[in-house]
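Researcher: Go.
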Amino acid sequence: MTVPGGQPEIDLHSIRIIHALEETGSITAAARLLGSSQPAVSQHLQRAEARLGISLVIRTGRQVRLSEAGEVVARAAPEILRALDAAGQELAGLQSLRSGKVRMVAFATASSTLIPTIFGELRRTAPGVAVSYAEAEPKEATRQVLDGEADLALVPSYPGEPMDAAALAGRGLIALPRFVDEMLLVLPAGHPLAAQQLVELSALEDDEWIAGCPRCRHHVIHACQHLGFEPNIAFETDNFGAVVAMVAAGLGVAILPRLALESTVLPAGAVVRPVTPPSSREIYLVVPRDLLESRPVAAVMSAITGMSGSPWRLSAADGEAPEGGPPPHEPLASDDEGVAVT
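Model: Structure:
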């Protein structure tokens, strides 16, 4: 048999036989090395020589040695076999990447935003990886990973409350920044600043505020204090739907993460605007150090990286977040009708 260029083509098994023959010095030893029989090896060589039209070995009685053609094959064999072995290992790695199980936990607003997209990408790229998922507050999610109850956790970190990566590392966990979640201002539609496409935070010094979850609340206080004023927090609730409903009722203003707004129906009477100075929280993937090389975990991390076309910006670690904070966005909903934030 010849290849399209007209050159004779030698099969892989013949290359292995020649390589073994050079290493061992006899067909019997070569057959033993290859896990075959001496007659089978001899017959295969004879068929290869007939097909190639050239002798690969010189037979003298019971002794054999490589011919000039055989020596050509023997010189090329190590590189060929190394390349094939490397390709086999890579294929095995890809196969194992597509199987296994991973347990993941995340905060509530990730459940209807990030998680479906991550798992959808995972299903597409690694269909053999089984996943389980549960919601947990950030501290509880981190504890579950630390105690081995979960393999991965998505945990948010707010400005003024940076992720303590060093403390996690001391307990065998790695915190990898993965998403940037912009903080947005929610105003009553009738607010004097609602017509602006970008609102100065300092212009809200005299407003009453509706504070969300404890970490959102801490962020509002920290951001306002940084500008020299104390926000007048009149209402507090962990329910994001309640926050935007209170804003729509004209009870105050609020700052919420984009993920929270995308998980909430924005009622008529409320509008969303970017605020300056801009701020954002960062979403980290917390994983045990000894699981970083785990194939299922690697599959999830690969799925996250593959989300570059999603509505959420990947963090600087994944090459998407620009310097200087998040860019302004279009309003998430019209000013006069309640719609699901998308």
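Model: The longest helix spans residues 68-97.
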